[in-house]
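SEQUENCE-TO-STRUCTURE ENTRY
===========================
Question of interest: how does this chain fold, as expressed in backbone structure tokens?
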Amino acid sequence: MKKQGLVAGGGIGGMAAALGASRAGWEVRLYERAAAFSEVGAGVQLGPNVVRRLQAWGLQKALQEVAAFPTRLQVRSATGGRELAELPLGNTAIERYGAAYATIHRADLHGLLLAAVGKYTDAQLNLGQAIEGFADGSTARTAIPGAETAITVRTSLGKEVEGDALIGADGLWSRTRLQLLGDVPPRPTGHLAYRALVPQGALPSSLRTQQVTVWLGPRLHVVQYPVRRGELQNLVVIIEGPAPADLQHWDHAANAADLEGALQDACPALRHVVDGVAAAGTGWRLWPLSDRPPVRNAGEMAQGLVALLGDAAHPMVPYLAQGAGMAIEDAAELQRALSMHDLEVPLRLTRYALNRWQRNARVQARARRNGRIFHAVGPVRWGRDASLRLLGQRLLDLPWLYRGDGSVASSL
């Protein structure tokens, strides 16, 4: 009989987990609290390390139909406007790392994973029903070594469902994590992200872009890049400031006046980019950033018949553009581990965690470090800009990240 995998959460991580577990030969039942699948309008950057995973799942064509593929990444001064450094992408990334660098709308990434789950698997998707808690038979005192054990989950509709493993992909405020690790809430970072999606056709030609541009300023930075085949431009302005009281609901209506005040010292070129949002008739949304300390050991990602994946395991600030990417890498490694049919399930999940926790911790730590560098002031800022002008591509290219750990799951 096939093993039964239960997945908590139907976001990008949950969909990737369902796809990976199904490809490992498991029957999957996914539970999503929302009544319909949806993603808030925002962009996602996918490095070659992530695109290779999607290719291995047979999703290259689907990705090409919805994503944009920038040819370069440019870093500019937010106050002076001058270019500090650039990193070639496009064919250069393909030649170096075996895959392109892609930028994509979150809804489009979720949609292609959802379509793949529907096309290639028999996974059951249960909407309007969340996993609220679990009982892990493998950790019970009466469990007999070597005997088959099961995990029982309780859903928000009062149902009890039994399976062979539970994958917690239920996000930053994961209930699965809370029960497994007894953790404290995520930590507010003091950084606020203002996000906007603008139709490029509504912008003057001088403000349209098909590349990634990062603007670095004191206590703030701005990122802009194309999504949805280049038809939309994603803008993110991250500043330092107090977080809203309700952190669990990250998408808030933003106060444009506060944003304008934070950018009062920005160069005219950057101000024109930001002003283009209002001129195009679109608005801003506000995202207060929270994270957790880097993963400390494999036990923080899997215990018994329960494993954590994506933001439930290792939420990170977006200063390395790898949040969604690490969730997809997790799912690819989960597929490899669940395919080890000669091992008992707890050992498979332990293998998954052992192969993932250190890389995730490194990405979390590097993202935090980037945040300090991006927002630097005084002599540190001057040294940062001088280093970028001198070393440029050597600082921006990240072979350790884009080559990945070699654990690409087998293709469909």
In short: The two ends are 21 Å apart (CA to CA). Confidence is low (pLDDT under 50) at residues 406-412. The domain at 4-185+292-402 is CATH 3.50.50.60 (FAD/NAD(P)-binding domain).
